[in-house]
């Protein structure tokens, strides 16, 4: 299955996948009506997910919208001066004002047409409007070639430019006010290694600015928000460097502005004569697992850089992200589990060295309860004081919010209000108006995707119906594992509710705890949903920071110990959290299913039920003989098998190498796709070996669901896959 260029092998694989599909269909045949019902439920909640609210940049409003009966969105824009006229007429919602006959909307790119160019799929990775609003540079995935192709479109004529047209493009950055485009291409192993500059409209060959021959080094570019500079990141496990290119003259060379040892995340911005660097680079030789902000004055010659910290280190308030406009700096900060969003006026007062955040008189912006994530942008207009954020919560559909940093006013410009109304009807808390009237009112407002609110308005969260609770679970080794539990507070108070424990353990990332509309089908049926950050705790952070030399040993040990942490969480959900004082007890969990994403060594744990999504199951062979390209971060995370100690450690946690003989395995549904970073053959090998060695039990099926489609870009396939997974949970748990 890994011989992707072998046509005979691929034909055998097609037959194998068809057999697996038929087996899964046979096992799940008694849930066909349930899957259909679930798919309808989920489709109704995804109706507006691919439509975006207008984004103001210069004289234009940019947005994507869905057309009725079409699978993919259309990228559009309209003049900001026609905005009021646009939102006042109701039919049609987009396009023309038939009263005046004036064209309001300009279609920039129809992704349905792009799908016809690229084998039925429209999977875009990059999309950048030029700063003069004349061109659109974008990359589309070519499934046959397995890489992204660059195209540039003239937005005035609607025609594709003759150049640049390049294959295997991984990054873009505009220069010379939109007259030049810089782009990065990858080698055959998908390593970004060359940077080119192309003059739009010129017949000259594109100029090679940099080629990196070291196979361990990767390149990345981006423009600063004021389009003054293009930054070039050159990074490997050994070192990280940032260079600046003068955007007005991209052929004038590059200047080194920052370097550090080890692999570090480095983002450079420019504001009125100062460079700001947001990084997690080691401090004084000591590794850190948080980001901090530096700044340095910059002169026209780019010759002198003196980096100093902006803020005094404060472990009680971690800066998670930062964004800039011409008048303000915005910070996403975290205090324990609590996220906050604040703005600081620019330019910063006199150069006094590092200060406390409070000394800069930050203005904290209003947020709802239970915020689990704050995403910045897109904020393209550097000279606008209005900045956009997406606020996420386990009990609230994502809210896209515009904050005016100058006035303090804020608007929720997109949120699924319909979800709130339908839930009120479901639980019998809606006013006496009919359901049809409710939905028609909701549809009319959601079709525009805008809703003005004032400071006293609710966030349309669902905390009226779904409770969200946080726990710190003490594991066997004393580590406190954060656990977030969500359940319906309106459903019937029954004993032995089913539970779903969601876990993601790779790269030390926090689990995505945003509201997921597909999980509503489980919550409304009385399920408990829990999120476990098995790699995230303040104690683990502190240990890593004080023992940087033991990082590799710690990471490899964590992969092994994650299963023990999972046991602790499993027991906690089944026993401790369900055994409170009966008078105060809110729920009791009878059975728990576990949903594992990405890399997780716990695949062979004999817990009640598993869902594996895009699993990394054959770590030993994949790291020894990589078929798909691996990065330095992959070896840093999972170990380097060329080192004998790492090799033995990998074998001990690699799920495929630790399948048990003669054991009754739990029911398992493994899902994977050819468009993921881990090969589908890993999932197929693990399933085949478990079936061969484990005790067979019809009530505990081992199912494999493989797709060749890009599920994330196809709403129909999304709902179909979610419905299958949910039906599997309901069937096996007897719910």
From TrEMBL:
Domain Peptidase S9A N-terminal per the UniProt entry, residue ranges: 15-415
Signal peptide, first to last residue: none
The GO terms this record gives for MF are: serine-type endopeptidase activity
Q: Output the GO biological process annotations, alphabetical, semicolon-separated.
A: proteolysis
Matching Pfam families: Peptidase_S9, Peptidase_S9_N
Q: Which InterPro entries match?
A: AB_hydrolase_fold, Pept_S9A_N, Peptidase_S9_cat, Serine_Peptidase_S9A
In what residue span(s) does the Peptidase S9 prolyl oligopeptidase catalytic domain sit? 612-696
Family under the similarity heading: Belongs to the peptidase S9A family.
Primary role: Serine peptidase whose precise substrate specificity remains unclear. Does not cleave peptides after a arginine or lysine residue. Regulates trans-Golgi network morphology and sorting by regulating the membrane binding of the AP-1 complex. May play a role in the regulation of synaptic vesicle exocytosis.
Q: What is this protein called?
A: Prolyl endopeptidase-like
Q: Which organism is it from?
A: Cephalotus follicularis
């Amino acid at each position: 299955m890994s011989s992707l260029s072998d046509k005979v092998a691929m034909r055998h694989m097609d037959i194998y996948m068809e057999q697996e599909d038929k087996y899964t269909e046979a096992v799940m045949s008694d849930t066909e009506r349930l899957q259909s019902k679930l798919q309808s439920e989920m489709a109704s909640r995804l109706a507006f997910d691919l439509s975006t609210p207008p984004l103001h940049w210069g004289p234009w409003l940019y947005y994507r919208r869905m057309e009725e009966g079409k699978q993919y969105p259309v990228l559009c824009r309209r003049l900001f001066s026609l905005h009021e006229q646009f939102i006042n007429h109701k039919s049609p919602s987009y396009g023309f004002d038939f009263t005046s006959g004036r064209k309001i909307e300009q279609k920039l790119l129809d992704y349905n047409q792009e799908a016809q160019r690229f084998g039925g799929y429209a999977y875009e990775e990059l999309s950048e409007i030029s700063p003069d609003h004349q061109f659109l540079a974008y990359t589309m995935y070519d499934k046959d070639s397995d890489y992204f192709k660059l195209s540039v479109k003239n937005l005035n004529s609607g025609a594709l430019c003759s150049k640049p047209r390049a294959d295997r493009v991984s990054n873009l950055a505009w220069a010379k006010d939109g007259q030049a485009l810089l782009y990065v291409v990858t080698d055959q192993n998908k390593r970004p290694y060359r940077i080119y500059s192309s003059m739009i409209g010129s017949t000259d060959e594109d100029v090679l600015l940099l080629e990196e021959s070291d196979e361990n080094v990767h390149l990345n570019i981006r423009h600063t928000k004021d389009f003054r500079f293009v930054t070039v990141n050159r990074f490997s496990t050994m070192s990280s460097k940032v260079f600046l290119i003068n955007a007005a003259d991209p052929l004038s060379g590059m200047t080194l502005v920052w370097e550090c040892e080890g692999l570090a995340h480095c983002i450079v911005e420019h504001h009125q004569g100062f460079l700001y660097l947001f990084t997690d680079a080691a401090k004084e030789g000591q590794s850190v697992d948080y980001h901090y902000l530096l700044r340095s004055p910059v002169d026209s010659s780019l010759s002198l850089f003196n980096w100093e910290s902006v803020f005094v280190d404060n472990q009680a308030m971690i800066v998670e992200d930062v964004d800039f406009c011409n008048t303000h700096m915005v910070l996403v900060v975290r205090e324990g589990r609590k996220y906050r969003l604040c703005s600081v006026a620019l330019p910063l007062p006199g150069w006094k060295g590092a200060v406390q955040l409070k000394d800069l008189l930050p203005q904290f912006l209003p947020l709802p309860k239970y915020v689990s994530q704050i995403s910045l942008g897109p904020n393209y207009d550097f000279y606008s004081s209005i900045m956009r954020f997406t606020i996420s919560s386990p009990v609230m559909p994502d809210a896209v919010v515009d904050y005016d940093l100058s006035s303090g006013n804020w608007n929720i410009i997109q949120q699924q209000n319909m979800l709130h109304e339908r839930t009120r009807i479901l639980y019998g808390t809606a006013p006496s108006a009919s359901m049809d009237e409710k939905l028609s009112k909701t549809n009319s407002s959601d079709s525009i995707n805008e809703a003005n609110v004032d400071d006293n308005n609710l966030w349309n969260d669902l905390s009226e119906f779904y409770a969200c609770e946080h726990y710190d679970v003490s594991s066997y080794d004393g580590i406190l594992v954060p656990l977030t539990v969500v359940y319906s507070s309106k459903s019937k108070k029954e004993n032995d509710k089913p539970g779903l424990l969601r876990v993601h353990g790779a790269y030390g990332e926090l689990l995505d705890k945003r509201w997921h509309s597909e999980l509503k089908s489980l919550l409304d049926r009385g399920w408990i949903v829990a999120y476990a950050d098995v790699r995230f705790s303040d104690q683990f952070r502190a240990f890593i920071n004080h023992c940087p030399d033991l990082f590799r040993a710690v990471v490899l040990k964590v992969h092994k110990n994650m299963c023990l942490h999972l046991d602790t969480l499993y027991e906690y959900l089944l026993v401790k959290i369900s055994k409170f004082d009966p008078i105060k007890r809110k729920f009791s969990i009878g059975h728990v299913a576990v949903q594992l994403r990405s890399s997780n060594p716990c695949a062979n744990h004999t817990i009640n039920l598993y869902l594996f999504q895009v699993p990394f199951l054959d770590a030993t062979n994949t790291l020894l003989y990589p078929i798909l390209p691996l990065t330095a971060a992959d070896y840093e995370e999972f170990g380097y098998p060329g080192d004998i100690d790492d090799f033995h450690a990998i074998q001990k946690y690699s799920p495929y190498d630790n399948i048990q003989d003669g054991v009754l395995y739990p029911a398992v549904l493994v899902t994977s796709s050819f468009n993921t970073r881990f090969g589908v053959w890993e999932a197929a090998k693990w399933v085949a070996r478990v079936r061969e060695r484990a005790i067979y039990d019809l009530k505990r099926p081992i199912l494999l669901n493989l797709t060749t489609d890009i599920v994330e870009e196809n709403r129909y396939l999304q709902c179909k896959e979610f419905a299958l997974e949910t039906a599997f949970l309901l069937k096996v748990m007897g719910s």
